[in-house]
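Continued from yesterday's entry.
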Amino acid sequence: MKDESLSPEGTYAIRFDVFEVRMSHWVEVPGIFRLADDALLFDLRGEVWSAGPIAWLSDSVVQLSVRRYPGRVSCELVLNLQVGRGVAICGTNRFEGALSALENWVRRQ
């Protein structure tokens, strides 16, 4: 299971709601917070999207893979938390926009 993932300078954190869906199969649903004020910037919690590999490209840009459970839908996300925008690619579908709109778009995939 994933621990909290901090950005390189500790400005942001990805926190996970973790639960077991089958014996020894865990889902790790991400929510991204700005630590200075604990503001929730991007949230897939409440859904069954499990986080895969995470790469902090800078202190405010994160690359994150998520996969819907169960199913075959997966998305690659690049989120710029400082400017509040990102890009999501789910299969052949692509969306670019504000984090709240991107979050809603991913939830509908």
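--- second protein ---
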Amino acid sequence: MSSQKQEAVKRISAPDIRARKGGEPIVCLTAYDAPTAALLDDHCDLLLVGDSVGMVVHGMPNTVGVTLEMMILHGQAVMRGSRRAMVVIDMPFGSYEGGKEQAYQNCARVMKETGAQGVKVESGPTVAETIAYLVQRGIPVMGHVGLRPQAVLTDGAFKAKGRTDEERLRVLSEAEATADAGAFAVVIEGVAEGLAREITLAIDKPTIGIGASSACDGQILVTPDMLGLFDWTPKFVRRYADLRGDIDRAVGAYAADVKARRFPAEVETYFSKKPVTP
């Protein structure tokens, strides 16, 4: 019954997201595992299996060390947990910059092994041609401009972009090239409201903001950030929960019950069946 119900639900697709340009804002969050994906699925139009998994799940200092195998593993989990939201998987650093053919082989592998509906690439100055190559071969692509986490080693830190005229024009140009290449949507990260609005008006594809103001066509946040799992979050994150505090209190209560022998109690304990009397 459950599998039949899942099969009857039509997943949101790249054309569906593309058609939302200028309409009802697109709701997006990151997801890395099946249980979380199942909880997010009814509320989100798009779930991004972000390479942020390296930092928020695996404890890496940045996203550069994330591998293709990691993205596939987490992508498979998110696909199992969701049924209606579009699932997009980040292509990790080094998996698409080496040329169009390399990008196609890796993206095709991700699509085949996960069943996801699209991939995301960070749209540096040389990536538009690769996006066009992928789209022409049937791979839906989401772009990403502004602050690009995979460029952290060249930038030196996670810094907001577009604060100078030269940088503003570069980010705008990359966004336009990404949209023209066929990306179905473009993530804009870490830019001022004016630039986010300018990009949103300039391109005919939906923009998804993260630290880019409400001027965008949709929004995305890293789910553990907005749920309050960490003691620090970026300025642009609104915490909708305090799971860090909730988990700390729950684990503390469990530890106290174990030490006081209050857990397990009789209700949580198995007992031998009484022998049957003749």
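Residues 1-6 have pLDDT under 50 and may be disordered. The two ends are 44 Å apart (CA to CA). Will compare against the first tomorrow.
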